[in-house]
Write a structure and sequence with these properties.
Elements (H helix, E strand, L loop, with lengths): L1 H14 L27 H25 L5 H31 L15 H17 L3 H18 L1 H5 L3 H12 L12 H7 L5 H22 L2 H10 L4 H4 L8 H21 L3 H13 L2 H4 L1 H20 L16
Helix pairs in contact: 1-13, 2-12, 3-4, 3-15, 4-5, 5-7, 7-9, 9-12, 9-15, 10-12, 13-15
């Protein structure tokens, strides 16, 4: 237990630079960005230091995953009994987000709001999917349509769709689990039995797609295009390493690099399936804090992430697609 608490605190303070904002494109006018204003920074040294920190954290996470006690069988049984309720609530929350997103004129993410003549049609489809998710009507067909909606967005805006990869994960997740509780219409068909045989893959799919999403965001908005986050920091002076703690040498560029590495590191931990609940706690904290500063726009945009992270916090990594396999004799 003490090791878990120590690791949580350790990751928390390493993750603090990510508070610069998880999606700077929502708040930055890309036409006003000053390119390459950071060329005098020692980028190689910063990146080497963070690679070393990331390697150390991953190694420590692997050790914890191997040697910390596993959940007992009765605990796992009680958790599994809650899955129909939690999965259904997750679908309702995601559905409500899709309706809100369409009402506010964007697809999946605030920066995906202009697809020319297709914009209104895509927004209507997203809203209909959201309504079906909320009602629990035809959940699997709606998930199937969501899969193709994401694919269409990918064809129109590959980078934007890649940054919303959680949508693809959610579509596959609900295609497998369907809607088990609070359903307006849930016909018993032979598809239920077919898909539910793959339920053991549902949580791992959700975890991996969220993880890859975070990795992509860490690179596209910070590590590969630091000028985006630097422009954000000009209007929102969140570099507390300088402003609060007085670390004068911790430049805005280093702050941005730190944020990018932390975001990518959180994603990698999810992908590897190690210390998933601890990682979920840290991720939830990071997403939660900007809400007090950025307001409703930040809240609406992060609703799906909150819901997915909460699901992983409850059920952990799942038994599939993880770096460290559970011992068969674990209780």
């Amino acid at each position: 237990m003490l090791k878990k608490i120590f690791f949580s605190i350790f990751l928390f303070f390493l993750a603090v630079p990510l508070w610069a904002d998880a999606h700077v494109k929502w708040f930055v006018n890309e036409n006003l960005i000053e390119p390459k204003s950071y060329l005098n920074e020692n980028a190689a040294l910063y990146k080497a230091a963070w690679l070393f920190i990331a390697l150390a954290i991953i190694s420590f996470g692997i050790l914890l995953e191997k040697y910390l006690p596993k959940a007992k069988k009765d605990t796992l049984y009680k958790l599994n009994a809650k899955k129909p309720y939690v999965f259904s609530l997750l679908q309702i929350i995601i559905g409500a987000f899709f309706v809100l997103a369409s009402y506010n004129g964007f697809l999946f993410s605030n920066n995906l709001n202009n697809f020319g003549i297709f914009t209104n049609l895509l927004l209507i489809v997203q809203a209909l999917i959201g309504i079906l998710f909320v009602l629990g009507a035809f959940a699997r067909p709606a998930s199937f349509v969501l899969f193709f909606l994401w694919a269409i967005v990918f064809l129109l805006n590959p980078i934007g769709a890649a940054e919303a990869l959680w949508v693809l994960g959610v579509s596959l997740f609900f295609l497998i689990v369907g809607r088990q509780m609070f359903a307006f219409s849930n016909p018993k068909t032979f598809f239920n039995k077919i898909f539910l045989t793959y339920e053991k893959y549902s949580i791992p799919i959700l975890r991996i797609f969220l993880g890859v999403d975070l990795i992509i965001l860490g690179f596209t908005e910070k590590l590969l295009r630091p000028e985006l986050a630097l422009a954000f920091l000009k209007d929102h002076p969140w570099n507390f390493m300088q402003n609060i703690f007085g670390v004068w040498w911790y430049s805005d560029y280093l702050f941005v690099i730190s944020a990018g590495f932390v975001e990518a590191l959180l994603g990698l931990v999810f992908v590897l399936g190690i210390v998933t609940r601890i990682n979920a706690m840290v991720t939830a904290t990071i997403f939660f804090i900007p809400l007090f500063i950025m307001g409703p726009k930040e809240l609406i945009g992060h609703i799906p992430h909150f819901a997915i992270v909460a699901t992983l916090l409850i059920f952990g990594s799942g038994s599939k697609f993880k770096l460290i396999k559970q011992h068969k004799n674990s209780k």
